[in-house]
Specification:
By secondary structure, the chain is mostly beta strands. It is built from no helices and 32 strands.
């Protein structure tokens, strides 16, 4: 496979080919910049060697990417700032069926506040984000959804940054995701989040599973830091790595009127903080478990 050498901040346009049978434009090599609306797909695995920049940059509204279970792998190591699939200030973006690992952020759909109206309409679904160093998925566009993804072993960056399996900002729903073994940076105190939602207004976080969180400072299963509130419903959290010294919260609702109902947590020191509870929540606290070392975690192998 031919790789395109890049300096910091530079991008290369990929060769694109039309696949009539699948009605998509094949991304034949990376890095790739998608400047036109349309449906794109992968037909093979790809690697990205640069320590900065994006493997795939979405530079247009109305873009759908279907990776068809092909791999996009970053190889720059734990100090990488590279992103697997990235979009900035774009609306109506869909990313599905991708396997992305080895990046600072696996999928990042962000906005910088410079547009008259915030971008919207992102769908991130049915992806596998494996061993990215700070964020598995980041979505910061209103009216969006993150669903049916597997996010495994997010963490280990050498920049001392807090980590999150899934991070959302704005009115974003998060549903039916499996977040396993997020852990902190390689050095320095930092927090670890399974799912982290901020600046929201009425988002629904439901039917997610978060397992085995490890951190050098604070561990949050699902945290909502937003004045507009949210609904947390029917989520299951299991913290294998109970710590008697770290600050641990299964469901944290800071500065928000967030309602939790029908949720379950095992192994956290605190079941919930500042949430408005409805019926049906079950919290089995951490001192009922035998503490285990984070060194046993799959992410550290």
């Amino acid at each position: 496979m031919k790789l395109h050498p890049l300096g910091l901040g530079l991008f290369a346009l990929t060769a694109l080919s039309i696949n009539p049978a699948a009605a998509c434009t094949v991304i034949a090599s990376i890095p790739a910049v998608l400047t036109q609306p349309g449906t794109y797909c992968l037909a093979s695995d790809h690697t990205f060697a640069a320590a900065a920049g994006n493997a795939i940059t979405i530079a247009s509204d109305d873009v759908s990417i279907d990776c068809r279970q092909q791999l996009i792998t970053g190889t720059a190591g734990t100090a990488t700032l590279a992103v697997g699939v990235a979009a900035m200030n774009r609306s109506n973006i869909t990313v599905r069926n991708c396997k992305i690992g080895g990046f600072h952020s696996g999928i990042r759909v962000n906005e910088d506040g410079t547009l008259p109206r915030r971008p919207s309409g992102t769908v991130v679904e049915s992806n596998q984000l494996i061993r990215n160093t700070q964020l598995g998925i980041l979505v910061a566009t209103n009216g969006s959804i993150v669903r049916d993804n597997l996010v495994f072993a997010t963490g280990g960056n050498t920049l001392g940054l807090s980590t999150a399996g899934i991070r959302v900002r704005g009115s974003v729903d998060v549903a039916r995701n499996d977040v396993q073994s997020p852990f902190g940076p390689a050095s320095g105190p930092a927090d670890t989040f399974g799912i982290f939602a901020t600046h929201g207004n009425g988002g629904v976080i439901e039917n997610n599973r978060v397992r085995s969180i490890a951190s050098s400072r604070a561990q949050y299963g699902i945290a909502v830091f937003a004045p507009g509130g949210a609904i947390l419903r029917n989520n299951t959290l299991h913290n294998r790595y109970y710590s008697a010294t770290n600050y641990e919260v299964a469901y944290a609702c800071i500065g928000s009127r967030t309602v939790i109902e029908g949720n379950t947590s095992y192994g956290f020191a605190n079941g919930q903080v500042n949430c408005e509870q409805l019926a049906g929540n079950t919290f089995i606290l951490g001192d009922t478990f035998t503490p285990e070392s984070a060194n046993d975690q799959g992410a550290s192998k």
